[in-house]
Amino acid sequence: MKDKSVPPGSYGLPFIGETIGWVRNPESWVKAHLQRYGSIFKTRVMGRRVVVMLGPRANRFILWSHREHFQWGGGYGAFVGGLFPGSLSMEDGELHRRHRDLLAPWFRGKAVEGYYPIVNERIQVRIRQWSEKNEITAFDECRRLTLDMVARALIGPAAEGQTDRLAIDFETLSRGLLTPFKWDLPWMAYGRALRARQRLEAWISGAMQRARESEGDNLLTSLAQGQEEAEMVPHILGLLFDGQDTTGSLMTWLLLELDRHPQVLRRLREEVGDGVGAEGAGPAGHLS
Ligand code: HEM
Q1: Which of 46, 29, 49 is nearest to 37 (CA)?
Q2: Quick check: CB of 89 below 6 Å from ligand 1?
């Protein structure tokens, strides 16, 4: 691309670009750029020149109407490919379509309906644990709750009682994504992340082997029958990871916004009380 054809913005310092501001506080970084350059701007982060596109129209353009103009492996791969080789979000074209078709039935109608009891049960258990503590870190807890739900729904009973331990490895993996220093040294964030990935893969591999002999009706047992283990383990790892930060952040923002808007919280509690019983709801008016 000629420089004239790229949107406004700044590449910042050589190599580092604008990485420091972005890592330090992504939210205010994005807001400041939005105000200065508009919803499409160029920047340089983690040693790469990138274009950021924000808002619903951009989402529709990239993920739906003009999807074929973008390359997932080349994009994500440059940032996180070393930690997630072979996962669905790194693949393009025919391979992506084939793997997506294998996973898709577990994210549709009947299968999703079957997750409700698991999701509700996991929420009740976690809320009970939270209420026994004086203080919780919302994002960490929401990510763990998400992992609980996703792992129990997709992997089945093999995940029971395992998620707190797995969550620690996922958190290490997550920290490895953000470091610009991609060196495989055991005392550095990236090296620790690679080791965490190996432990997670070994656990998934073991669960998959056990699933081959089981009758369970979940994503893991279906993939264990007839699919190459080496090919499927990265997909399951990717699924467990992809859901966590996204749903975890959504839940954290929801808690924050509800706390900022007590009248909405009060109405929500009334609605929950009317519809499904008020178990777990505290006094109306503030988050407790
Ligand atoms: C609020 C929650 C979530 C949000 C906002 C979200 C957002 C997204 C977006 C925007 C994409 C498209 C990006 C891309 O194609 O690379 C995506 C893809 C994906 N998401 Fe989510 N996600 C959420 C929850 C989940 C959960 C719970 C799971 C797994 C249990 C999950 C698994 C995936 C996977 C595997 C892909 C790649 C799909 C593909 O390449 O075909 N996501 N997600």
Answers
A1: 29
A2: yes
- In degrees rounded to 5, what are phi and psi of residue 11? -85, -5
pLDDT at 31: 97
Question: Is residue 219 within 6 Å of ligand 1 at its C-beta?
Answer: no
d(CA 193, CA 188): 9
Which residue has the least CA distance to atom 12 on ligand 1?
63
- Residue 115's nearest CA partner among 152, 162, 164 is 152
User: Residue with structure tokens 């965490």?
Assistant: 196
SS3 2: coil
Rounded percentage of the chain residues whose pLDDT exceeds 90: 64
205 Cα: distance to centroid of ligand 1 (angstroms):
23
Q: What is the mean pLDDT of residues 26-38?
A: 96
Map out the domains of the chain with their CATH numbers: 1-70 (no CATH), 102-276 (1.10.630.10)
Determine which residue's CA is closest to atom 35 belonging to ligand 1: 239
3-class state of residue 44 by DSSP: strand
What's the chain's length in residues? 288
Quick check: 20 pLDDT over 80?
yes
242 lines ligand 1 (CB under 6 A): yes
The verdict on the CB of residue 250 being under 6 Å from ligand 1 is yes
- β partners of residue 42: 9, 51
Contacts 24+ apart (CB under 8 A), 123-126: 123/149, 123/280, 124/279, 124/280
Segment 44-58, tens digit of pLDDT:
998 889 999 999 999
- Measured distance CA(235)–CA(241) in Å, rounded: 10
CA of 246 to the centre of ligand 1 (A): 8
